[in-house]
Design a protein that fits this description.
Distance between the termini: 44 Å
Radius of gyration: 34 Å
Number of strands: 37
Helix content: 10-25%
Number of helices: 11
Shape: elongated
Strand content: 25-35%
Strand order of the largest sheet: 8-7-9-6-11-12-13-14
Low-confidence stretches: 1-37, 535-542
């Protein structure tokens, strides 16, 4: 199953303005982990037979499985096989894989989405630039970092496309596999090649039309605008390759989901038209953590035919490798923000080859307006546009194009290729050979000069002096327990951290570093250590259960005072002939007490009117819904006695709202009374 490479539905409504709507205050939208949940196709599988397998043998294999071929994907030599009605994918795959003539059989995996012109959203062109095209031209506006962009105006100038109104479209195209395109959008009119196609059945069968119906996400239309929106037309935005055309093939439905067979069919359609429409780059803002041999074969086919596949690295915010980005013949693109820092959601792994702007990227949307989305889906079309314009100007394709693209970058992070940025953030001007290479920032901030660790109530508070650095990115807090190894426990922009994931009685040692927006990290601060201890509350927290006392076994004989917590109960005879007196009490802890409590104690002070009565203390265990006797029975309690209970695992004895329930039971063969002077409990942190 795929992770969507865009932002979640609940965010879109807040970040998609139109040209006629009041301009909202600028702020980066929330990022994405997972969006639409798509299930693998349960009616089809993908099968490739070994070369030389006769057609009769392939047909016999399908007959034995009660299956039939619905389509054949070429040149991958993969058959889209429909299963029998009562068959399952798992069972069918196991049978086909046992056939010696079968090279591979795999699921039909689910996929989902993941010179300044006069356009009003271009930086510097008026009041609408609050939502701006910082990825193309960053002057530090909206708290960005000067020149943290792809140097689009300089690159356009070098490509000689900055004349005319609007700038004219050239005779080349970028292939796109996505949710479709709103070809009637004012900034995309005349850009979409027609006829175009869709593949949405899970069988890899193409049909006419590629209209984007993804109203909520506008994913395909948004990607299209980032690549090739018309420039210098006085409307909206500019694409990174504003003179390109677009050949869209729709393989993802309105909810952003689809299947490998359909994605491969679209890839093959685009590659087949590579010369007809002069396509040398294929942009794929989709991905999955699961590889597919069929999909990999389609990527290899594109590569062998001179079409470079550029795909999204993924939005898991970890080291996961996503596909198709992870295949050897595809370029994996991570996301950077307007300060040239790695986007928090962007995957970082050795397969990342390039990075590009991917946070709060403004582009075209289904409604006809403009909106900001975030994700490696937004970074990918920036890189694809740079590659396409580079190919158009230089004539390079395949490995030569890839090498030039990798070299034409601003190197971010550690010098050379690294997991967060790859070779660096794409730079159109550098790629076209028209700019001097930017000098990579390799100077780390100064280290924090000290650190202080203070043991608290089941936690350790760590403080350090703030670091002053014009390129400051944040602090990293490292910890080791006892004589163990160091590990990072926090990243923060503040100068304090509270560590609550500690064990009482263990000594913890801390050190802090500073890092900048280029991921340069300082040396560590001096070390500081502390040992969290169990804190006992003051006697004021030793609570009376005021107003919580009652009895439902025996009769409340009398109150001994008006304060509501001292009483006497007379015993009642039960069906077995025994006299029983049950005294109940409860209390509810505050939220602060619940957060701090590590030990819970209760004490009962009282006596019975007969030395033959037996008293017991019970506590209600919410985790097992039963009363647990924790003290007693005690006999001979005719004078004031105190007995009680304590536990270091209080969570089992607390309700979800923090209520604690106690019961004192007295039993005797003859009548008696039991009296309480005080029932109380204590919290230990």
């Amino acid at each position: 199953m795929l992770t969507l490479l865009a932002i979640p539905l609940t965010v879109l409504a807040a970040v998609i303005p139109t040209l006629t709507a009041p301009e909202p205050a600028f702020g980066p939208p929330e990022q994405v982990r997972v969006a639409a949940q798509a299930k693998d196709d349960d009616r089809h599988i993908l099968v490739r037979f070994r070369p030389g397998t006769a057609g009769s043998e392939r047909a016999a294999a399908h007959r034995r499985n009660g299956a039939r071929t619905e389509n054949a994907l070429r040149p991958e030599r993969v058959e889209v096989v429909r299963l029998a009605r009562d068959d399952t994918v798992e069972a069918a795959l196991a049978r086909y894989r046992r056939n010696p003539n079968v090279e591979f059989a795999e699921p039909n995996r689910a996929v989902t989405v993941a010179a300044a012109p006069n356009d009003p959203y271009f930086p510097g062109n008026g009041s609408l630039s609050g939502h701006d095209l910082w990825g193309l031209h960053n002057t530090g506006q909206n708290s960005g970092r000067d020149d943290a962009d792809i140097d689009a105006p300089e690159g356009w100038h070098g490509a000689f496309i900055t004349s005319g109104s609007p700038w004219p479209t050239d005779d080349y195209a970028v292939g796109v596999v996505d949710t479709g395109i709103n070809a009637a959008h004012e900034d995309l009119a005349g850009k979409s090649i027609d006829p175009c196609y869709s593949a949405l059945t899970g069988t890899g069968t193409l049909s006419s039309g590629c209209a984007d119906t993804d109203v909520l996400r506008s994913h395909g239309t948004h990607v299209s605008g980032t690549i090739a929106a018309t420039a210098n037309n006085g409307r909206g935005i500019s694409g990174a390759a504003p003179n390109a055309r677009l050949y869209m093939c729709k393989a993802l439905a309105a909810d952003g989901s689809g299947y490998v067979a359909d994605v491969v069919a679209c890839m093959n359609e685009i590659v087949a038209k590579r010369d007809t429409h002069k396509i040398r780059v294929l942009s794929m803002s989709l991905g999955s953590p699961t590889a597919s041999k069929t999909e990999e074969a389609a990527v290899d086919n594109a590569w062998n035919n001179g079409v470079l596949v550029i795909a999204a690295a993924g939005n898991d915010g970890n080291t996961t490798v996503n596909y198709p980005a992870g295949y050897a013949n595809a370029v994996s693109v991570a996301a950077s923000d307007r300060n040239d820092a790695r986007a928090s959601f962007s995957n970082a792994n050795p397969d990342v080859e390039l990075s590009a702007p991917g946070v709060a990227v403004l582009s075209t949307v289904m409604s006809g307006g403009y909106g900001a989305l975030s994700g490696t889906s937004m970074a990918t079309p920036h890189a694809a546009a740079v590659a396409a314009l580079l190919s158009r100007k230089s004539g390079k394709t395949g490995q030569a194009l890839r090498d030039a693209l990798d070299a034409g970058v601003d190197d971010l992070g550690p010098a050379g290729r690294d997991p967060a940025f790859g070779f660096g953030r794409v730079n159109l001007c550098l790629a076209l050979g028209g700019c001097a290479a930017a000098t990579a920032d390799t100077t780390p901030p100064a280290a924090p000069t000290s650190a202080t660790a203070t043991a608290g109530n089941g936690r350790v508070n760590v403080d350090w002096p703030a670091v002053s650095d014009p390129d400051f990115g944040g602090h990293r807090v490292y910890r080791k327990a006892g004589t163990g190894s160091w590990s990072q426990v926090a990243t923060t922009t503040s100068s304090a951290f509270t560590d609550s994931k500690v064990t009482i009685g263990t000594t913890y040692t801390y050190r802090v570093t500073a890092y900048d927006r280029s991921e340069n990290e300082s040396a560590p601060s001096p070390e500081a250590a502390a040992k969290p201890t169990l804190k006992t509350y003051s006697p004021a927290a030793y609570k009376r259960l005021f107003g919580s006392i009652y009895s439902d076994r025996g009769a409340l004989w009398r109150l001994l005072s008006n304060d509501g917590y001292r009483l006497e109960i007379s015993a009642a005879k039960n069906s077995s002939g025994t006299y029983v007196s049950d005294f109940y009490a409860h209390a509810t802890m505050t939220s602060a007490e619940r957060a701090a409590v590590r030990k819970l104690s209760t004490a009962y002070n009282g006596n019975a009117s007969s030395s033959h009565a037996a008293l017991s203390l019970y506590v209600y265990k919410y985790s097992s819904s039963r009363w647990v006797r924790v003290d007693g029975p005690r006999t001979g309690v005719t004078s004031d006695r105190s007995f009680g209970w304590s536990t270091l695992s209080p969570r089992h004895y607390l309700s979800s709202s923090g209520t604690i329930r106690f019961r004192v039971r007295g039993t005797r063969k003859a009548g008696f009374r039991t009296r309480t002077d005080l029932v109380r409990f204590r919290l230990d942190g």
